[in-house]
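Example 3.2
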Amino acid sequence: MNVHIRWMIRRDIEAVLAIDAGLREPWTEDEFLRRLRERNCIGLVAERGDEVVGFAIYRLRPGCLQVNRLAIHPEHRRRGVGRKFIEKLRGKVDGDRRRFLSMWVRESDADAARFLAAMGLRARLERDIYSDPDEDAYAFLWAHREAGRVQAGAEAPEVRR
């Protein structure tokens, strides 16, 4: 069955919370709602049939689309859902106002790091990013072809957590 990516709406929150509960630091419903009310913060969901199987939360920053959260239901991983999200998000990076796609990944999250690398994002190690526990992170970046070639650390926007 095909995957459809659409805007997140209020009735999706229960399914999103259930998927998010499997992450290392799950957000509360209030946290999701607070962030989604912020200017330039947008939520997407992936549906397979009528079931929400993944979600993404991203923020539009000057020059950059920053992914704050990307999660796929464990039963739907390795079935192209994450790839669909990245393709959708890349399509929103136009090379003019937004030239980069960025995302933070904990150093210990090897699966996410391998996935993003396979999707063509380049990693730059950042020290002392997380404090609970104390852990480094990778800033993953993808540049629109109009932004020129991105070397790790060169011409890249500041990636904020």
